[in-house]
Amino acid sequence: MKKIFTFLLIACFFWSCNDTSETDVLTSNESDVISDEYDDASSSESNPADEDQPSQMTFNDSEYLVYGINRNFQLDTLISVDEMYNGILNDGSVTMTVQGSCSEICQMAGCWIEVAKSDSTNVFVKFKDHFTLPIESTVGKSVVFHGTGKVDTTSIEMQRHYLDDKVKSGEVVSKEDYDAIVSPKVDITFIADGIMVQTAKGN
Questions:
Q1: How does pLDDT run across 142-192, given as a tens digit for each residue?
Q2: How many angstroms from the chain centroid is the CA of residue 35?
Q3: Which of 50, 56, 178, 192 pairs with 172 at a CA distance of 20 to 30 A?
Q4: DSSP conformational letter for 130
Q5: What is the pLDDT averaged over residues 110-119?
């Protein structure tokens, strides 16, 4: 009887040791898998800040910084701001590449600009997917932008918002300017998916 009891104790001991070993091996393997998955996820993560960095390029012997979601638009056929404006009035909606000069920029985020026509009036340019330009170094610079222009309606609230931006930039805006906004404004708006801003002129 004692021999049988002793045999059972020894058998239980070996079974317990074997079970612990298997558990340890399983835990170790699971740890390796988790570690590998973590490493893969870490290596595949992109830095959002990298996507906001401008690209550099040379065009017509001048240096430009390129912003936006489309940085490879064609530059072989450029039109002026006046040509863009008249084309949209005639055709309703036109996709094109335009060259002009930045006359104003959103002072809150750099999320829109205005480009000047030959009669000194401005055309409003928004940026697709809300990319932005540097506020302090864009006004007065030559710009080349690609996108779609259309006849658009600007609400009363948005017109007043644009005046607020002008005030923030240091311009004097009178109460009469605000009071004059009494209805939505129908005008040309351009939605740019990419834009080049000149940083240095060629020799």
A1: 999 999 999 988 899 999 988 888 888 778 889 999 999 999 988 899 999
A2: 33
A3: 192
A4: G
A5: 95
The domains of the chain are located at 1-45, 50-200
The b/e string for 54-78 (b: 16+ C-beta within 10 A; e otherwise) is beeeebeeeebbbbbebeebeeeeb
Q: What is the pLDDT of residue 51?
A: 52
Alpha helices in the chain (DSSP H): 2-44, 48-52, 81-91, 156-168, 175-179
User: Average pLDDT for residues 115-127, to the nearest whole number?
Assistant: 95
Q: How far is CA 65 from CA 96, 138, 143, 152, in A?
A: 19, 11, 10, 28
Nearest-angstrom CA–CA distance, 130 and 56: 20
Matching CATH number, 50-200, of 2.40.50, 2.20.28, 2.80.20, 1.20.120: 2.40.50
Distance, CA of 160 to CA of 150 (rounded, Å)? 21
- The number of residues making up the chain comes to 203
- Spatial separation of the C-alpha atoms in residues 188 and 85, rounded to whole Å: 7
Residue 133 DSSP code: -
Structure tokens at 50: 């990298």
Q: What SS3 state is found at 171? A: coil
Provide the residue type at 15 as one letter. W
- Please tell me the pTM assigned to this model: 0.67
pLDDT digits (tens, 9 = 90+) for 20-51: 444 444 444 444 433 444 344 333 343 444 45
Q: What is the DSSP letter of 158?
A: H
